[in-house]
Amino acid sequence: MLFGDWQICFQTYIDIYNLEGQKDPEKIQRAREVMEYQMSTDANDYWWWADGLYMVMPVMTKLYNVTGNELYLEKLHEYLSYSNSIMYDEEAQIYFRDAKYVYPKHKSANGKKDFWARGNGWVFAGLAKVIQDLPKDAKYREEYITRYKAMAKSLKEAQQPEGYWTRSILDPAHAPGPETSGTAFFTYGYLWGVNNGILDKKTYIPIIEKSWKYLTEVALQDDGRVGYVQPIGERAIPGQIVDVNSTADFGVGAFLLAASEMYRFLK
């Protein structure tokens, strides 16, 4: 249970617990057992891949808000600091998927840094969720906002004219064509930032308008399916077919996250 993919369900358990008035502590009993055991260990390398930041960072902030235990926020910062040390690129201000893909050990087909879109989507969306959950005076909140804003600026420059982001963010030719899951996560992150007064409207609404147009007019099909979702994986794969028939639950979920924030924006 110490692998992030098996911990993301705790986010939903905590949300249900809160929505129902915190009446049944059994709903979050397993979440607390697992996370409090994890925090009791000396290890800090639990989040060694980009996806893991989305899976578990919000678990930590949600459990802090339920319990008031400051250790959740301290361990969140400790684990994230380790992740940053092995995956974050200071120059590009975005994340490699994991240490295997750090440049120049790994390069794109054209010799460039290879940043996976969905991986950065997980991180960008995860930071939004964390900032949303943190008290205004939380110790590390401004640090996370600074990182979130830096990612927003960097990702903005890589958006394609058609509104999507390619699977390898800075090398569109590596795996060309639209991809929905990364684009949807970025759209969610941008909309959340605008809706909460963290990102400048004038700067980012044009980015949102283009990506939303792609999501609703290209990715979304007449029968309700969401297409152009890269299959399960961990990198952009040259030659991999991603087309109108490519769909997956995580792509649909990212689309719905973006839609929820667009609903708030329009209201």
From TrEMBL:
<dbReference type="InterPro" id="IPR012341">
    <property type="entry name" value="6hp_glycosidase-like_sf"/>
</dbReference>
<dbReference type="GO" id="GO:0016787">
    <property type="term" value="F:hydrolase activity"/>
</dbReference>
<keyword id="KW-0378">Hydrolase</keyword>
<dbReference type="InterPro" id="IPR008928">
    <property type="entry name" value="6-hairpin_glycosidase_sf"/>
</dbReference>
<dbReference type="InterPro" id="IPR010905">
    <property type="entry name" value="Glyco_hydro_88"/>
</dbReference>
<dbReference type="InterPro" id="IPR052043">
    <property type="entry name" value="PolySaccharide_Degr_Enz"/>
</dbReference>
<dbReference type="Pfam" id="PF07470">
    <property type="entry name" value="Glyco_hydro_88"/>
</dbReference>
<protein>
    <submittedName>
        <fullName>Glycoside hydrolase family 88 protein</fullName>
    </submittedName>
</protein>
